[in-house]
Specification:
The protein has about 270 residues and is mainly beta. About 10% of the residues lie in helices and about 55% in strands.
Length: about 270
């Protein structure tokens, strides 16, 4: 009996070690820095002061001081952004994130000719036009992104796929207009044309659907890259003074994360 007891005492630690399971707890909070671009193709909004010559459509080579080219009906638009976006793991598969995003876009408006005509003033039977080469608008936004990520796989692999749905509330911080003329003597009308151009919508919102890949372990600094589709939420908004907000766009985003804390190790039996 004594020998049996000794054998049990000897093998008991080995049995416990065999049943022991190591569990790693990763930091739930991570600090993120994001950068990306959203691309849209929207409809052109032509200012009522722009004159297009109908004669142009019938005679391509016709060109005179009173006639310019036609305006295009669509316009390609890109918005670039950077931001801070910390995220928090609710579980091994679900992650929530919120932050602050700063975005910028430059858009220009011109015709298929060297210039187009812009009405400066109209009095009785007299209408005054200037020949404009192009007008430009720089817009700066501050936005708040809210996101939820879902990882199909539960284990933290070095390369890990995920899906994302998010919401962005954008607010116009600043807008600047500039005008380029065929004749430099017309520069004195730049302020008047800029005033007539106006500004884009103050508020805009987008729903984001995305798919991405995470590279690296979550207990070390890691990065991600994703493709996303921004979908318009609010109607009748303008991306710029002469661009109507489209329904859907295309986006590319990359993010770098730093975990807030260290990996913890615990044991279960």
């Amino acid at each position: 009996m004594k020998n049996v007891i000794l054998l049990i005492l000897f093998f008991s630690p080995l049995v416990l070690l065999a049943q022991e399971e190591k569990i790693y707890e990763y930091p739930r909070l991570r600090w993120g820095v994001e950068a990306g671009a959203d691309m849209f193709s929207g409809n052109t909004i032509k200012n009522s002061n722009i004159r297009e010559s109908q004669s142009y459509y019938y005679d391509y080579y016709y060109n005179d001081l009173y006639y310019g080219g036609f305006m295009f009906d669509s316009y390609n638009y890109t918005r670039y952004y950077i931001g801070l976006k910390p995220e928090y793991s609710l579980s091994n598969r679900f992650v929530v994130a919120a932050g602050l995003r700063f975005s910028f876009n430059k858009s220009n408006f011109n015709s298929d000719q060297n210039y187009f005509l812009w009405k400066i003033s109209e009095e009785n039977l007299t209408t005054n036009y200037v020949r404009v080469r192009e007008v430009n608008q720089n817009n700066f936004y501050a936005g708040v992104p809210l996101e939820i990520k879902f990882f199909p796989g539960q284990n933290d692999m070095i390369v890990r796929q995920y899906f994302k749905v998010g919401m962005l509330f954008n607010f116009l911080a600043a807008s600047h207009n500039s005008v380029s003329f065929i004749d430099d003597n017309m520069e004195k009308y730049a302020g008047e044309i800029s005033k007539q151009m106006g500004k884009p919508s103050f508020q805009s919102g987008y729903l984001y659907l995305g798919i991405g890949l995470k590279f690296g372990r979550m207990n070390h600094p890691f990065g991600s890259i994703e493709l996303q589709a921004p979908i318009r939420v609010f109607k009748d908004k303008k991306l710029a003074s002469f661009i109507k907000e489209p329904e859907v766009g295309f986006g590319l985003q990359t993010t770098f994360y730093i975990p807030a804390g260290k990996k913890k190790l615990s044991y279960t039996y």
